[in-house]
Amino acid sequence: MSADDRIAPPRLAEAFLSRCLPAGAVRETVLGDLSEMYVAKFFKSANRSKPERRTGPGVKHHQLRQGASIWYWSQVPLVGGRYLFRRVFHRRLYRIRGSAAGEHEARAPGGIHLSEIWGDTRFAVRSFRRAPGFAIAAVLVLGIGIGAVSLMFSTFNSVVLQPLPFEQPDRLVWVWGTSERMPRNTIAYPDYVDYRDGTDAFESLAAVMFRRTRVVTGGDGAERVITYPVSANLFTALGISPELGRVFLPEEEETGQDGVAILSHGFWERRYAGDPGVIGSTITLDGMPAEVVGVMPARFVLPVGYTYPAGADVWFPLQRNAGYARGRANNNFAVLGRLREGVSLGQAQAQMDVVARNIADSYPEVKAGIGVTLVPLHERFFGSAREALLMLAGIISLVPLVACANVASLFVARAVSRRTELASRLALGASRARLVRQLLSEGIVVALAGGVVGLAIAFAGGEALRVFAPGALPRLGTIAIDGTVLSVTLAVSILMVPLFGLAPAIRGSDMRIAETLKVGGGRGSSGRGWRFRSILVVAQVALCLMLMLASGLFVRSFANLQSVDPGFQTESVLSINALLPDFKYESREEIEQVWGDVHRRLQAVPGVRTVGFVDNLPLGAEGPKYYVWAAARPPASAAERVPATRRGASQGYFDALGIQLLAGRHFEPTERWSGPGGATVINEALARQFFPGEDPLGKTLVLDWDRPVDLEVIGVTADIHEVGPGSDPIATFYVPVRWYYDMLSVVIGTEGDPLALVGAVRHAIKQVDEDVTLSSIQTMQDRLSDTLFQPRFRSAVVGIFALVTLILSSIGLYGVLAYFVREHSHEISVRLVLGAGMGGVARLVLARGLALVAGGIIIGLVGALVGTRLIESVLFGIGATDPITFCGVSLCLVAVTLVACLVPTLRAVRLDPVEVMKAE
Amino acid sequence: MKGKKHLGELEQMVLMAVLQLKDDAYGTSVLRELSDRGGRRVSPGALFATMDRLEGKGLVTSRLGDPTPGRGGKRKRYLTVTPEGVAALRDARNAWVRMSEGLEEVLQR
Hints:
- The complex is a heterodimer of chains A (about 900) and B (about 110).
- Chain A is of the alpha+beta class and about 900 residues long.
- Chain A is about 50% helix and about 15% strand.
- In chain B, helix 1 crosses helix 2 (about 25-35) and helix 1 (about 10-20) crosses helix 3.
- The chains are: A alpha+beta (about 900), B mainly alpha (about 110).
- Strand 2 of chain A pairs antiparallel with strand 1 of chain B.
């Protein structure tokens, strides 16, 4: 077997192509040629790629493959489309006949009638030029439908489908630590070592510590950088070699040999202007010197953290003996690894399970019930985005259907108004098939033009997402219209032709010639056109209602979230994260003094009401959890312990946020974290959970620190929604803020607009120390609104599309009613003459319109009753079949469609019988 | 002239490529020949269409080769230029030569 045999074109693309090609020798020879060209492309890009990208066997294999695959996919429409076109339009496909000698001979009688197809196309374009209004409407409506699909696909393609930028990314896995309380946790270093050494399923298993912010000094001044301590094998596990220098050596995990650092490409360019001489130089972080040993390439991203990719400037080797790596209870590490070739996820999971059980058995007091879950790395980062996008895509897929129904209706109307033309052509000897073909080529012209509009919409939509919703999805910045998106858009455009064009074409060409010509193109047998268009309107209304219901549910759920009282002041509170340059200070007392100065200076700023400090702002992460229990009721076993969230806060924190004190007192300003015997303030949720039916004041809460620590409950506060309005308050105990922390959040209660004070506040803090780093300066209101980002995003996207379909269906309804009035002007005139009265005529038209709307609403409601269950999981405070939303949205739809009915109704009652009769 | 088989430029190039390749003229090799010798980048779709058209005009014939492992076990469609094809090519060349007579100064610069 040569290497060429293993390099084969993407199977899906080949399957598509295969379907497009006529069966037999043509299919075989063309596929063969293309696969040969694919292999050639593959090796050509292999030779072109830079030498350093080709080190090692199989390196960048998938990237080379990607280039060739994109080429191959592009051939699907280019080659496949050509043959498909011929197959559809020409029955007489050339055949390859087998001769007696077993040798095959290809023959193509007549070749392709390109001229004929060209003629059809030109004819279609010409006829659109005569009816530009129709053409523009059809192209725009189809464009909206295609654009919706194209936008969803391009987003999905960039956000979910693209592989991670590592070598053989499908072998990379993420390791979640699990426990009874925490289904997804990080892992303690000693556990990581056990997993690493106790299994052989991984080529390498790497660990990354939480991100740390440090300050670089020297050279171009102080700068705050994001650093990660990582295991020495991380870069090898991910299969990325440095752009310059080397990766860490295993011995550099030992304390004393750790003075080395690897820089990110971005940081290297920013601070060192891309100077290759940086290798071997010294970088000073937090006052500690380290030797720069490597620079990672620009495409390297660190796959850890809440967001993807996690920004990072500098990496350090983690220290085996450091405090953060000691102890089984310090779950400080993200663990990820590369599976050995041929090892499945299940096999690796089984091996890890054995190790986890051993750990749980050996350390029952801290590790009872723990386990691990392996997930593919790609799944870890894009799994939830995939869910979210699939849901949106499911809803938005209704848009192209509405567009199709709408355009089909336009085509029917057009076919009807062209009755005379079509009948003449039939009479002159055109076959019906020829006529269908002509009408279909008009459809194709419209669909292709619609595809172009759709691409424009997708492009604009992608840009809008990037500008207005940058944080909505990971990798949103990479959304692009690439070859795959182009092919999909083209395919969707072509697929829509039979959806909207086939039925009108067949109907349009079916007529009794003599009858049509006899009545001179006037009122003919139009009952069928009306009925068909009515079905289309009912379909549009039904689909539109479903979209509107989804939108309505999202909006109401969003409103529910917004109306939740978070339990604290948000309007006039400013929050800031402040990081002290702690390397400048010798002792804890000095840091404490700096915070004291910050407090004093801020308090003196005019307009500042209160200043408080907290180690973890609400409306962010949940915060660290610890096991606690009431001293009177210690847990019977380790497994029965219950965790609660800890927050370090000063008295000003409660005042600034207006968190109500229900009983007892707050911390005194002089109160310090003192460990045993210290004071704690608990929230109601914790009081309910741990001190049910008793007064917790004065009771002792035991905190499972390194050892059990007694805390005296001195106060009880009201619950607040710490995580966000969508989550219930969590059991929380407050302890006095630890003033020796170098990073605290400052909350400032203000008298007026908090944002007006930003300058003064910043100035006041900088007066204490120039090198304090300030970040995330926001009002609490903005933080609150950030937590509602996803629901707002969903409401907006679905709402926009619902509005568009509402407009489309209203226009559709208007069109069919106007048509009804035109076709029945004779009958209506007779009624008017016979004294039916305006009311009677209006009722006649309105009843038609409302019957269609009612039919659509009934079908739509049934569809929605089933469909909205799919979005139930993301709704807050509202059921998926909320009757108020269902009624309200239906009424709203009736109101809008009623407006659409009004114009044709008015036209009907204003008909002048004399004119109508004369025209006949 | 209309009655005769007029050759498009790509058709001429493909016919000559097939002649150059002798017994080894099939889709991929013709494409490679066009790009290596002729400096022409032709899309596979256009080439397949041209091959079909030439065959339809009776200027080339094709036969199927044996299955080849290098291309997923699929057979090649080998092309041979028919006498009519050679004649058409010759006509095209003569026309070119006649049209370019006296233009040596312009063309050879």
